[in-house]
Write a structure and sequence with these properties.
Structural class: mainly alpha
Distance between the termini: 55 Å
Shape: flat
Length: about 140
């Protein structure tokens, strides 16, 4: 049998109370036509924020890609290669945000999810390579 600590029980109780309040509130909105119109207006506003936010996010990733590209031109060797790869990864990640706006979700279709996960994993690997190379170059 699983034991639940007193603190966990209190947190779970608070969570269930908030979920119950949220459920009762949403039931009230659905039963009132005026509230339903207000909910639809809020839904449209949230969708607009989602779309514009993704375009802004894509712009930010493109700026990172441009920064890596400019920096790659100034360097040579392995560092240049890594920065060119970073340029491509950040550009593709920004592009995936634009595709996300068209599809409406980052997880659907499945290939968009794979695309985003691949870019995220590539960013982590690039960071790891950078930190490893920096540690090697700082050794006496």
């Amino acid at each position: 049998m699983m034991k639940i600590t007193k603190g966990a029980a209190i947190r779970l109780t608070i969570l269930f109370i908030f979920l119950g309040i949220g459920g009762a509130y949403s039931w009230q909105i659905m039963s009132n036509p005026a509230s339903l119109e207000q909910a639809e207006a809020q839904s449209k506003l949230l969708e607009e924020i989602y779309v514009k936010g993704n375009y802004i996010e894509a712009f930010i990733w493109f700026c990172f890609a441009i920064g890596f590209a400019v920096n790659a031109v100034k360097t040579s060797g392995k560092i240049r290669t890594n920065r060119l790869i970073a340029t491509l990864v950040f550009f593709l990640f920004g592009l995936s945000d634009i595709v996300e706006v068209q599809t409406g979700a980052w997880w659907s279709p499945w290939w968009l999810f794979v695309w985003k996960v691949s870019c995220g994993l590539s960013m982590v690997i690039l960071l790891w390579v950078y930190l490893r190379d920096r540690a090697i170059s700082n050794k006496p």
